[in-house]
Specification:
Radius of gyration: 15 Å
Helix content: 25-40%
Mean pLDDT: 92
Number of strands: 6
Low-confidence stretches: none
Strand order of the largest sheet: 1-2
Length: 108
């Protein structure tokens, strides 16, 4: 999430929005969200994880990382990433390139 916070201006220039959420309570979520520059939800439940098709870890009561790039016009997911650990996360710079690619394809 830090990478998305550092590149929030570039993401906005690419006409992209960022939204994040966590299982944390509001106080901890606010600490994580501080300075990121995008909305940050809190209190993600197992029901939400199930709706997303994400892996819920019973032992720690957390949702594992689930990331989506959604077409703002159609509402369709154009890219998704599910992780069960610290690897395999979306990179903000790559998302910017992807969004710009889709924008250029839509113009042609």
């Amino acid at each position: 999430m830090d990478g998305f916070g550092r590149q929030i201006d570039e993401l906005r220039a690419a006409n992209a929005s960022v939204v994040a959420a966590s299982v944390d309570d509001i106080d901890n979520a606010e600490k994580i969200a501080d300075g990121k520059g995008f909305p940050f939800g809190y209190g993600v439940t197992r029901d939400i994880a199930d709706t997303l098709g994400s892996w819920w870890e019973d032992r720690r009561q957390i949702i594992q990382p689930s990331e989506f790039v959604v077409n703002g016009e159609t509402g369709k997911v154009v890219l998704s990433s599910y992780s069960d650990g610290p690897l395999g996360r979306l990179d903000a710079g790559q998302v910017i390139k992807l969004v710009n690619f889709y924008e250029s394809m839509a113009k042609n």
